[in-house]
């Protein structure tokens, strides 16, 4: 599988770096994220393409094995509410998708093993 580089806004990059330093994510995910951040394309906040998963975006994804679809909004931890499909920016799935674009396929270690997801659609929310 072709590895694409992440697209990140300057503020999202800062958020991810801070999280990485104090995170308790698995060694696999931590190293993967560290490498992706190093190779990311960085944009001014207002210039980030609209189809990039970022803070304050809504993502519709599908598990490539099961076909099951999920839609959620990425928000700051204090706004998270799973009943409203609002997921913390620091949740494993948010970290996994951050910086990827519509059409990208990603692999991420979840509690039940490495899962593969395809990003079907990304929308900015306010």
Automatic annotation (TrEMBL):
InterPro entries per the UniProt record, alphabetical: GreA/GreB_C_sf, Tscrpt_elong_fac_GreA/B_C, Tscrpt_elong_fac_GreA/B_fam
SUPFAM superfamilies cross-referenced by the UniProt entry: FKBP-like (SSF54534)
UniProt keyword Transferase, yes or no: yes
Gene3D superfamilies: Transcription elongation factor, GreA/GreB, C-terminal domain (3.10.50.30)
GO terms of biological process kind: DNA-templated transcription elongation; regulation of DNA-templated transcription elongation
Signal peptide interval: none
GO MF annotation, one: RNA polymerase binding
Keywords: Kinase, Transferase
Domain Transcription elongation factor GreA/GreB C-terminal: 49-123
PANTHER family: REGULATOR OF NUCLEOSIDE DIPHOSPHATE KINASE, TRANSCRIPTION ELONGATION FACTOR GREA
Name under which the protein is recorded: Regulator of nucleoside diphosphate kinase
Organism, scientific name: Pedobacter steynii
């Amino acid at each position: 599988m072709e590895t694409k580089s992440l697209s990140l806004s300057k503020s999202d990059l800062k958020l991810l770096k801070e999280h990485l330093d104090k995170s308790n994510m698995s060694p696999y995910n931590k190293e993967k994220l560290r490498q992706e951040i190093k190779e990311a394309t960085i944009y001014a906040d207002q210039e980030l393409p609209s189809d990039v998963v970022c803070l304050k975006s809504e993502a519709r994804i599908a598990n490539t094995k099961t076909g099951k679809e999920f839609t959620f909004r990425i928000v700051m931890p204090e706004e998270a509410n799973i009943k409203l499909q609002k997921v913390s920016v620091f949740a494993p799935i948010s970290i996994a998708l951050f910086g990827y674009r519509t059409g990208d396929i990603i692999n991420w270690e979840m509690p039940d093993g490495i899962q593969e997801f395809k990003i079907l659609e990304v929308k900015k929310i306010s």
